[in-house]
Amino acid sequence: MGERLDPPAGGELSLASRKLPALGDLDDGPAAGDEATPSVPWQGVRERALGKSLVTLRSEALYSLGALHAAHLAAAAVFDDRRLAAAIAQRSGEVVSDDTLTKLAEAASIWHRDSASLGMALTAVGATQVPDLVLGEALQVDEHEAEALDAMTEGYQIELKRQILEEADS
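Request: output the structure for the sequence above.
Response:
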C-alpha cells in the first residue's frame, strides 16, 4: 500500500521482485507428474478418472466436499441465528409473523440436513483406501480392458452431464 505506480526515473523497469525469488533461485527439481497434479476445470470426468492418481482424485473430492460442507455449516449457523433473533424479538413484543418463524425453521432444517449428508460423504470418501496410481495401473489392465475402461468412463461422463443438466432445469 502506498507505493507509487510511476515508473522509476530513467525509464527502466527492474524485472526483480521483492516478493518473488530471483530466477536463479528457482527449484530445478523435477515437477510432479500429470497424474499427481490437481485437475483443471476443463478436464472431463473421463480424463480425470483415467489420467489422475486415485489419491489425487480422493484428495480433490475431499477438498471440494469440505468446501461445500463448510458453506452449509455456515449457512445453517446464519439461519439458526436468524431464528433465535426472531424468537427473541417476538418474545420482547415485536411483531414477527409465524410464517417468518416457520420459513426460518425450514431453511435452517434444510441446511442442517444437507450439512449432515455432506459430513457423511466426507467421512465415506476419507475412508476409501486407494493406491497412488492411475486406475489402469492400479488394475493392471490389458489393452482390451483399457478400451472398456475408456468406454465405461465416457458413458458415465455423458450420464453425469445429463443428470446435471436435468437438475439445472428443475
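Residues 54-91 form the longest helix (38 residues).
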